[in-house]
Design a protein that fits this description.
The protein is of the alpha+beta class and 166 residues long. It is built from six helices and five strands, in the order αββααααβββα. 50% of the residues lie in helices and 23% in strands. The protein has a five-stranded antiparallel sheet.
């Protein structure tokens, strides 16, 4: 009787390392510091953390029901930018982070910075990180308006000084 034995230690080590890596990634996703989604290149968001769902004012129930599709929550003027990012994903495996907006159910918009990478084993599944930058965009707008008011005051300063001299 011949006995065949095989050392499965390398497999056990690899499985353990994979479980640890998955646990680290899950902690990152569950920390809700930043929105994280898993999606395919057709626009189906298959997984998302609470931070992302809160950003776009959607529920987990809507996500599970397949009602959260990235091309439907993206305003039309950003579709070309999304297509460019998809092409970059397909050719290099990652896309350069870019700014866009998402539509909420009440039709309000949220500004985001998004970056994505293909999952190594797939040419269709990617992980994207979504940062809500609405507050930053509002501060930038307020600063531009303040600068414009200052510019107007400075441009009118000679006229105001002439009026005082008279």
């Amino acid at each position: 009787i011949a006995t065949v034995t095989r050392d499965i230690t390398p497999n056990l080590i690899a499985e353990s390392a994979l479980r640890e890596s998955e646990a680290r990634f899950r902690r990152l996703v569950d920390s809700n510091i930043i929105g994280v989604i898993v999606c395919d290149c057709k626009g189906n968001i298959t997984q998302a953390n609470d931070a992302f769902l809160e950003t776009i004012s959607r529920t987990r129930k809507e996500l599970v029901a397949g009602e959260v599709l990235w091309h439907e929550i993206t305003p039309l003027e950003y579709h070309a930018l999304d297509q460019k990012a998809l092409e970059e994903l397909r050719t290099s495996g990652v896309c350069t982070p870019f700014e866009k907006e998402y539509l909420r159910p009440d039709e309000s918009r949220v500004s985001v910075l998004i970056g994505a990478a293909l999952v190594e084993e797939s040419q269709d599944t990617c992980v994207a990180f979504v940062l809500d930058i609405t507050e930053r965009k509002q501060m930038e707008q307020a600063l531009r308006q303040s600068e414009e008011r200052l510019r107007t005051v400075l441009e009118n300063m000679p006229v105001m000084l002439d009026a005082v001299d008279e």
